[in-house]
Amino acid sequence: MYVGNAILALMLKLNQEYLEGNIKKLYIFHGLLGMMITMPIVTLFFQENGLSMQDVFVVQAVFSISVLLFEIPSGYISDKLGHKRALVLGSLVITLGAVVYALAYGFWAILFAEVVLGVGHAFISGADSALLYNTLIGLGKTDEHKRIESKVVAIGAYSQAIGGVAGGIIGAINLRYPFIIWAVVLIPTIPITISLVEPAVKRVKDTSANLWQEMIKIIKYSLHGHKELKWIIIYAGAINTSTLVFVWFMQPYWQLLNIPIAWFGVLWAILNVSIGVFAMFATKFENLLGLRKALIALVILVVTTYILLGLYPSLIILPVILVFYFVRAVQQPILRDYVHRRIESDVRATVLSIKNLVGRLMFIIVGPALGYASDLLSLPVALLLSAGTFATIGLMALIFLHKNKAL
Hints:
Elements: H1 2-33, H2 42-48, H3 53-81, H4 83-102, H5 106-124, H6 127-139, H7 145-173, H8 177-186, H9 189-194, H10 211-225, H11 227-256, H12 264-279, H13 282-289, H14 291-311, H15 322-340, H16 348-376, H17 379-403
Helix pairs in contact: 1-6, 1-7, 3-4, 3-5, 3-16, 4-5, 4-6, 4-8, 6-16, 7-12, 7-15, 10-11, 11-15, 11-16, 11-17, 12-15, 13-14, 13-15, 14-15, 14-17, 16-17
């Protein structure tokens, strides 16, 4: 009897150690995934390969469509077959996408690379956060989720900062070199995801014949049956889209201010370091204002920043861009934690995928239109139009959040 208890205690201890290892491995995984040294020069790379600003947003819209098509099926498969398997597959496909990018010339080759990356991103999106939260359930540490999620955001941001400096310097020599290095950096994500341990949680029943019916049921629950969840998902999509659009306007904005390309990496690094710093204040920000006022404040900050950048394009106003990165940093831990606490483990990745899908849909609709406005009119005008667009979407989401007593 004592031997049996000792063996059981040893097994529990080993299980705890393996689960603790998941957290560390996910930190490393997001560090490597965030090492996107291509980002400081990616729009310039597009333009070098003959793409207009409208083309840039079309390419990103196609990326979003490819994510959209696989987002919910990948989330459902992740919930059903295991989040680890989804992460392994996602790592393989994203690495392949980076290789395709390194070899891409012209619009159609770049478009294909984005489709491959979109599929890989879909399998990682939701599965990483779901595996982390289920790991914390197994460890009995769900109260630490917001703090750990903030750290994940910070690590990814610091990694982008390091990669950004290198990308700007290397890109000034040749705009293709950062893409080649990026592909090499992603390779270790494959063995890391293979080494993860799947926490023991309840799984969706194996009803493969009804896979689509099961997914539709979860979609209806998220976007119709659970009104609180529905409107927080729509709000999250609006905030994500509002900051993502500026990411693709940022390099042309720097060019508008006559900033040398070699400095793009340094600026990118500063912005991503700011994400790492800001992310650690997500809990304090929510506690200080309360959830309701915090969500209202995020919309006001985004809209005000677009207006200032559009009206006063100058080096003096440049630091205002940090406001976008504050919003990007604090919204993810707050909104992910909000969603996690209102869903069960057996649909966790699927619901998170639905949340991401809504944001992608918004970007597909809004992004190319704003890119076209930039080509046809001017970048400052497009920024002002962005302010009006996201003020409208953000206000609508907040009104319905209040109406449905989600705040």
